Amino acid sequence: MLRADSVSLRFGGIRALTDVSFSVRRGEVFSIIGPNGAGKTSMVNCISGRYRPTEGRILFDGADITRVRPNRRAALGLGRTFQNLALFGHMSVLDNIMVGRHHLLKSGFLSGMTYWFGGAQREELAHRREVEEIIDFLQIQHIRKAQAGTLSYGLRKRVELARAVALRPKLILLDEPMAGMNLEEKEDMARTILDLNEEWGMTILMIEHDMGVVMDISNRVMVLDFGRKLTEGAPAEVMAHPEVRRAYLGEADAAPAEAIPA
What InterPro entries is this protein classified in (predicted)? Predict the structure, then answer.
């Protein structure tokens, strides 16, 4: 579904990504891990269109989207959440999620002027039904009318996920969906991600630091370090890789116990 071919990204003399290639298969949960500053969010920003790679290309469903605008990528079926929450704090939860349906609206300025008598109202009600289904699925009915800015961090994370799901994307990019959550909130979010993948058929690309979650729900994992790809594979294989253990877990090479003098 998604392929990155030799993607590099530079900001002046700083290399955020260097010759990174990988692919995400349709229907899987694919995780990107690595230390802070490894280039994980930069990679997601290149995929979503927030950044344009300095070199290389990105293909989605067989089409080259390297130079496609972010709104067009959303229309093609790419949704995302952000590491730092990007909700409209003064708007209700319902209205924040409705923003995710905006690119699907067909009513224009003239039909909007005759809202109560034309098709604009019917269209909005149809989209609202979709949003209510998402609200039920994510179990946030009790906050649907609350202002997003008044909610706890964990609930705001769920609202941002709901807005991304409202796009009905083929591929959803999750940038640290469990950051700042307690254990119970993390377990709920992990179950939700699996349900989106298994019941709603969404392919997931996720950045996450919680290794327990990554090991439990990912089909495959890629590791970045200083903007370069270290390895890619099944979670257990990746976590057993010696370079990964050094770079990500901070483990140094150690001499065998019998070789250490008393």
Answer: AAA+_ATPase (IPR003593), ABC_AA/LPS_Transport (IPR051120), ABC_transporter-like_ATP-bd (IPR003439), BCA_ABC_TP_C (IPR032823), P-loop_NTPase (IPR027417)
The answer as to whether 201 is a domain residue is yes
3-class secondary-structure state, position 203:
strand
Bridging pattern class, strands 78-80 and 171-175? parallel
- pLDDT tens digits for 222-231? 999 999 999 9
174 and 141, same structural domain? no
Q: CA 55, CA 45: separation in Å to the nearest integer?
A: 14
**Which residues sit opposite 173 in a β-bridge?**
80, 205
**Hey, how many other C-beta atoms are within 10 angstroms of the C-beta on 226?**
15
Boundaries of domain holding 69: 1-77+169-253
* CA atoms of 212 and 33, how far apart (whole Å): 12
pTM for the full predicted model: 0.84
Amino acid type, 233: G
8 and 43 fall within a common domain:
yes
Q: Is the pLDDT of residue 186 over 80?
A: yes
Contact call for residues 134 and 162 (beta carbons, < 8 A): yes
Looking at 168, 203, 234, which one is the last position of a domain?
Answer: 168
